[in-house]
Each structure stands twice: as C-alpha cells, then as structure tokens.
Recover the amino acids of this structure.
C-alpha cells in the first residue's frame, strides 16, 4: 500500500509536504525543505514575521559539524542522542540549548562520544 499524500498538499508542490509525512524524515528528504526556506527568505517582496528565528539553523549547524540524523523506532537519532518524536508538543515549551557556540557543542560531542564509545571520537580527539 502506498503512502497517502497529506490532505493539504497541492499538486505541483514536488512532494514537498510528503517529505515530512510519517516515515519521510531523513537528511535526503529534509534538505529540500531547507532549500525551499532559503529561497523563500530571498524572495523579493516577501517578508517573514518579525522575530521569527530560522527553524533550520540548528540543522545547518549539525551538518556543518559533520553530523547527521536518521529516524527509527519513533526517535530522531542524532548519533549520540536520540529524541522521541511522540509527544513533541509536550516538550515545545522546554527551554532551548543555552548556547550553540562551538565550545559548548564540542563538549556535548565529547561527552556523547565518551558515553557511547568510551573514548573521544572525531576532531576533538
């Protein structure tokens, strides 16, 4: 049985909304969303609401740091950390990370690496 297209998807959207349908979460399927967002931001005459943060900035940072993700068993696996997809609305008001500074992310990577492998893996080694 094939996947159903979301009800709000219009013909001609090149499957954009289908990419975020259940089971459609992967780097390959999320990257077009990132590119559509970038194109939207540069569209002449289009203004984003004031104060709207870039929803893809953390994902871009993940990719820039040679990270990736995949989904399995109802979780988004970020290599050293897995986050349940179910109940995300309950966590929507959780405070964001204190810092996305390189030093803070390096420490997260270091701790995760030691927890998973028993030693530091990657550029911080």
């Amino acid at each position: 049985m094939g996947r159903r297209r979301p009800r709000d998807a219009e013909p001609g959207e090149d499957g954009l909304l289908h990419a975020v349908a259940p089971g459609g979460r992967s780097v390959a399927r999320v990257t077009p969303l990132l590119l559509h967002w970038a194109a939207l931001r540069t569209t002449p005459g289009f203004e984003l609401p004031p104060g709207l943060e870039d929803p893809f900035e953390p994902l871009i940072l993940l990719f820039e740091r040679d990270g990736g993700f995949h989904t399995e068993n109802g979780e988004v696996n970020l290599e050293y950390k897995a986050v349940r997809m179910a109940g995300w609305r309950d966590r929507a008001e959780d405070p964001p990370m204190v810092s996305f500074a390189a030093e803070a992310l390096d420490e997260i990577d270091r701790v995760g690496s030691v927890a998973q492998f028993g030693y530091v893996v990657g550029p911080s080694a």
The chain has a mean pLDDT of 77. The chain has four helices and three strands. Strands lie at 70-72, 75-77, 82-84.
